[in-house]
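Data deposition worksheet. Section B asks for the primary sequence of the deposited chain exactly as it was used as input, without tags or linkers unless they were present during the calculation. Section C holds the resulting structure in token form. Section D is free text for depositor observations; keep each observation to a single sentence. Incomplete worksheets are returned to the depositor.
Section A, Depositor: J.P.
Section B:
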Amino acid sequence: MATLGRRAGVAVLGRLRLSGLPAWLAWLFVHILFLIGFRNRFVVLFEWAWSYFTYQRSARLPPETVLYPGHHYGPSETSTIGDELRRNAYLRIRSLDDWRRLMGG
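Section C:
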């Protein structure tokens, strides 16, 4: 299971394969389910809902954040999150079909 963005995810649960919104909702449900205690579940669910409806991305780094990736596209040894999002196809996967195409399957 993985979330790939807003309302996008992939999940393979035995023979069941989900992508898009159903996979994203399954990921949310499973992660809430594994939290200990009602209060923790409620707080996390409320924080996620608040972030979702207000479009806040508090847990994300700004695109101009400098990175030192293990690969180099050019003469520079640094990159930024924005550069990686533009250049790295793995960061643009939105569905299970996208992932399969990228993996050559």
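Section D:
The radius of gyration is 17 Å.
Residues 1-60 form one domain.
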